[in-house]
Amino acid sequence: MKILDKFNLVLFSVIILIISLVICVLSFGWLDLKMILSGVLYLETNAVASNIVLGISIILILLSIKSIFFNSFSKEKMEGKEGILLENDNGKLLVSRDTIESLTNAVVKSFESAENVMTKVELDNESHIKIYITLFVYPDVVIKELSNKLQKDVKDTIKKSLDLEVTEVNIRIKNINIKKEPNIKD
Fold it and tell me: Is the pLDDT of residue 80 over 70?
């Protein structure tokens, strides 16, 4: 979200909060309606106050129009949600989530002690990569060693292949699989 969008959101949230509080205070009878009306009449009759209110109103109207009708995300940023857009002097390259997931799966499948791999990649607006790996392991594996090696290898492979930094590699061991011994018939 851009700074102007955040400002708009905070500003309109504060305005709605103030309006809601005034309505509640009026409903409970803690504030007299005549007092509010006299404040509004003062703003209308005083030239300086009237000009200030007019200026603030115009700014709020413009911010409202911008927030309602103009999306702050450019087309390239929307593409970035499906991947990471890399640019150089020769052109652009969109590295998709699927590419990162496939690369991660290839690394995990190279470990004999891991199986049934499922990978999910999350990208945020700053192109930070978070990888979530769910897998089954065999009972003879040391899970802590496997996960440390997997995290390091996934980060290293993505850095080497795509020149991208991975912020997190989160591993979930879903279950323990029993190795099936081949049937030997006499």
Answer: no
Q: Give the DSSP letter of residue 142.
A: -
By the 8 A CB rule, do 137 and 173 touch?
Answer: yes
Specify the length of the chain in residues.
Answer: 186
Domain extents in the chain: 3-69, 77-176
CA distance 3 to 102: 35
Residue 26 token pair = 């009026």
Q: What is the pTM of this model?
A: 0.54
Given the DSSP bridges, would you call strands 114-123 and 91-96 parallel, antiparallel or unpaired? unpaired
User: Three-class SS of residue 186?
Assistant: coil
- The shares of helix, strand and coil residues in the chain, as percent rounded to the nearest 5, are 55, 25, 25
The SS3 of residue 117 is strand
What CA–CA distance (Å, rounded) separates 179 from 156? 29
Tell me the average pLDDT across 149-177. 92
Look up the CATH architecture of domain 77-176: 2-Layer Sandwich (3.30)
